[in-house]
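TOKENISED FOLD:
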Amino acid sequence: MLGAEKIGEFAIWYVVFLFTLTIHEGGHALVAWMGGDDTAYRGGQVSLNPWPHVRREPFGTVLVPILSFIWSGWMMGWASAPYDPAWGRRHPRRLAAMSAAGPAANLLLMLAAFAAIKIMLGGGAFVAPDNAGFSHVVGVPPGTPDGSLLYPAAFTLSVALNLNLLLFLFNLIPLPPLDGSGVLQGLFPATAGRLFDALSGNPMLSLLGLLVAWRIFGYIFGPAFGMLLALLHPGVSYS
């Protein structure tokens, strides 16, 4: 049973999670549409409205995020923007741009959250926490009233920063079905393109790619998170 504090954290997590997925997939859909493929556009996914993404992937946008938060205290899930593979084969550079658009959207959101946190730190509204974590990269000054909006603001920006860092790095791993494989597929259509095109059609190989990518990601995120903390709080050491 979730207490009131956990319910509040869940609400913030889900709003940030769903908004992030919408921007990520909307980026794919927008660039594909601009490049001549209106598949996702016809599905309503060139939009800031999350409903088309929820409708297409209810399991990855609703059920899995809820269950993963209950089990682990953070959310995982997925969404997808459809595209025409034949269009991608005809226009490999456009395929690469479409694939890169999702991680690029995450990078922009991460930079926006980082800038907001640095401004709040500079103004004294936030401070370096005693113990940093995925959902807690900043704290509020001692003596801040319990009902202050600074508490949810710090939590929201922490989640937004690290969730977008996670999605940016994870999706760029060049293994199907992740976006990094689409980038390579478009940049090198005669070599990597043919290989990834064949692999992406096999659900079992795609699942294997996700498992291997998650293993690789385990070695990437820790150093990236440490670098992020060093940029946010110069001179503060976290073990």
Remarks:
- Residues 24 and 97 are 13 Å apart (CA to CA).
- The first helix runs from residue 4 to 34.
